[in-house]
Amino acid sequence: MNAPVFSFTDNLDMGRVADFPILSRPVRDKRLAYLDNGATTQKPQSVIEAESKFYLQSNANIHRGVHWLSQHATDLYEEGREQVRLLLNAANSKEVVFTRGTTEAINLVAYSWGRSCLKAGDEIIVSGLEHHSNIVPWQLVCEQTGAVLKVVPVNEDGTLDLSVYKQLLGPRVRMVAIAHVSNALGTINPVVEMTRLAHAAGALVLVDGAQAIAHQVVDVQEIGCDFYAFSGHKLYGPTGIGALYGRYDLLQSMPPWQGGGDMIRTVSFEHTTYAEVPQKFEAGTPNIAGAIGLAAAIRYVRDIGLDNIAAHEHALLVYGTEALQTIPGLRIIGTAPRKAGILSFVIDGIHPHDLGTILDMEGVAIRAGHHCAMPVMTRFGIPGTARASLALYNSREDIEALVSAIGVAQKLFGVER
Ligand code: PLP
Q1: For all residues of the chain together, what is the average pLDDT?
Q2: 8 A C-beta contact, residue 222 and residue 192
Q3: Residue 393, Cα to own-chain centre: how many angstroms?
Q4: Residue 335's pLDDT band (cuts 50, 70, 90)
Q5: Where are the alpha helices (DSSP H) in 275-381?
Q6: Are residues 120 and 35 in the same domain?
């Protein structure tokens, strides 16, 4: 890991806490140290206000109304799409499909592209560190088409074994579906290189960006991927909204996956024709308020600068790693040289769930378990880990609260330091 490039005395550290009303509430009569950002992030005032302002002043259904409010709501919703385009540096806002989140975005590709394009014997590559959301949809489509799932193994430090990846990239591979950042280990995968190699082998690439989107600059043109999926709620935005970026020509060629209102051009009992992308993939009334809240979240992180956020979280990751490494009996799982702000660890003599419960009594919110990534837990021979995951509002104080709460747990379990 490189040296910290961000100072904790900078305003970004403490100033930003005030933007998030929930962070000032005590939990169990203790100061809250919210370190479960990999699961979901807290929301700044501007996002909360954007959603409630929509219901107070602009609520109407979109795309179908002739009246002013409907057109106004449509403009706000489509402005959300433009914000996503800017965030991802997509070439065209038609390449942005709103979904419920990462899971739905990956399922959309697996169902629409997978069911129409895959044949028996075709291959899909995933990696050994994927979230279940980037495994199960592909398994389902394999069952339906006879395609076969291949897995890139994970090295001891949590990086992917790229030599095996290169060997797996044979002529039958049609899709590589890979996490940008591992939610369980924090590994930042070399998605630019992996995409280049996949394309050279004639395969498409889907990047699961759930754990990257709030923590670094993401540029889909630079990555060169065909699809990129993310969730708004991991980006300081609302739940129930996210997006799929898809290359325009690919989205155009893919069949719809859900039928209903808004995704059609004409309907008769004999023949139905479909709307242009992205509407073709947005059947039914979408999460309009969610898209507007997401737009506010994107403005919020772009105002701070994702480079600044990345630098802050990296400095905190280095600080947290050093602090945890001083604790006897603690082992960090995931020590890749390029890591996002995720500290996954196990402690001798304390089950991660017990640890999570005791930390909670101290006001420290972490996640414990398999993190919806059971295969990578199996790879490391553990049932789960305790995971502290960082966000832009975390500070050294949160890490210190974590370390001290671990001390309390070790005392309770008779594991003396
Ligand atoms: N992929 C990764 C790497 C994740 O960490 C998560 C959620 O934790 C998901 C996919 C699924 O995201 P969602 O539940 O928001 O659809």
Answers
A1: 95
A2: yes
A3: 18
A4: very high
A5: 288-304, 306-325, 352-361, 374-380
A6: no
245 beta partners: 96, 228
CA 172 / ligand 1 centre spacing (Å): 28
- Is there a single domain that holds both residue 84 and residue 185? yes
Separation of 192 CA from ligand 1 center, angstroms?
21
CB contact at 8 A, 413 and 170: no
**What strands lie across the sheet with 123-127, from one edge to the other?**
96-99, 242-246, 227-231, 204-208, 173-179, 123-127, 148-152
Q: Which atom of ligand 1 is nearest to the CA of 208?
A: 1
**Residue 276 in 3-state DSSP?**
coil
As a whole number of angstroms, the distance between CA 384 and CA 377 comes to: 6
Band of pLDDT at residue 16, cut at 50, 70 and 90: confident
Q: What is the pLDDT of residue 198?
A: 98
Q: Tell which residue, 248, 247, 264, has the closest CA to residue 256.
A: 264
For atom 8 of ligand 1, which residue has the closest CA?
39
Whether residues 361 and 274 share a domain: the answer is no
Helices (H) and strands (E) in the chain, counts: 15, 15
Q: Read off the pTM.
A: 0.96
Is residue 190 domain-shared with residue 277, that is, in the same domain?
yes
Beta carbon of 101 within 6 Å of any ligand 1 atom: yes
- State the residue range of the domain holding 344: 14-43+305-412
The verdict on the CB of residue 41 being under 6 Å from ligand 1 is no
Q: What is the mean pLDDT of residues 34-46?
A: 98
Q: Which of 257, 288, 295, 289 is nearest to 104 (CA)?
A: 257
* CB atoms inside a 10 Å sphere around CB 268: 7
d(CA 263, CA 251): 13
Distance CA 77, CA 219 (A): 22
Per the listing, tokens 């104080």 go with 397
The catalytic site residues sit at 372
Does residue 146 sit within a domain?
A: yes
pLDDT at 415: 85
205 dihedral zone (left: phi>0; alpha: psi -120 to 50; beta):
beta
Check which CATH number belongs to the domain holding 398 and give it: 3.90.1150.10
Average pLDDT for residues 48-55, to the nearest whole number? 98
